[in-house]
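Dear U.,

Please find below the material for section 3 of the report. The protein was modelled together with adenosine-5'-triphosphate; I have listed the sequence and SMILES used, followed by the predicted complex structure.
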Amino acid sequence: MKVIAVASQKGGSGKTTLAGHLAVQAEAAGAGPVALVDTDPQGSLSEWWNEREAETPLFARTTIDKLQEDIRRMSQMGIKLLIIDTPPAITETIANVIRLSDLLIIPTRPSPHDLRAVGATVELAEGLSTPLVFVVNGATPRAKITGEAAIALSQHGTLAPSILHQRVDFAASMIDGRTVMELNASSRSADEIVKLWDYVQTRIDRPTRGWHANNERPAQKPRQNYGYTPRESAQA
Ligand SMILES: Nc1ncnc2c1ncn2[C@@H]1O[C@H](COP(=O)(O)OP(=O)(O)OP(=O)(O)O)[C@@H](O)[C@H]1O
Ligand SMILES: [Mg+2]
């Protein structure tokens, strides 16, 4: 069983949206049985799952104290993929989740605030040697800042090649427990999730752990603003 954590300190970056969508897509792509865990006291993912009519993915109720043991149990039960949603914070709980994960997904909106906030989550993952992948979420088509965000993030880790754009179906589909794929399988949003899962799958299929093993760690790593310099101040 592979374990994916979705985390970012920034609220509203898309953690819950990604956890639900990737779980449904992984199941559809044959990577299941997939189970979800919600470690966020806000409970958005579990509320979404409660609204869901489809039987998959599964939802596992657990606590952070029992997570390690429950991961072992789920693996023995034949679960192939576990996706864990986390609260918008940097806490010991989140460190524990990342420690137990094979891959950390960090969603980030292409805004200066979001980009600056990824630093703490990146450092946490690096300290625990958990490979990470950034996913740009909520991008506006043709906006210059999306390209800038991609460049800034790629200096600090791997950026998923599929960017998720800002579209109402991402929010609307989750109201009644579904996903964009289940609303309209041929939508652009669905296509982005399909491509994102294909990419994430290649990442978790890699046997090695850690930046060094993947030879992806950048040689130079400016720590202060995670490489993101707004154009105005770059010119100043
Ligand atoms: N690509 C998108 N297009 C449109 N709406 C989106 C998109 N991604 C997320 N949203 C909406 O933005 C809001 C925040 O997303 P989400 O709940 O997934 O973020 P989060 O990181 O889990 O938030 P929190 O930090 O509070 O847990 C939700 O209302 C969601 O439906
Ligand atoms: Mg959330």
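For the text of the report, you could mention the following: Residues 15-16, 40, 44, 85 surround magnesium ion (ligand 2) (CB under 6 Å).

Regards,
Y.
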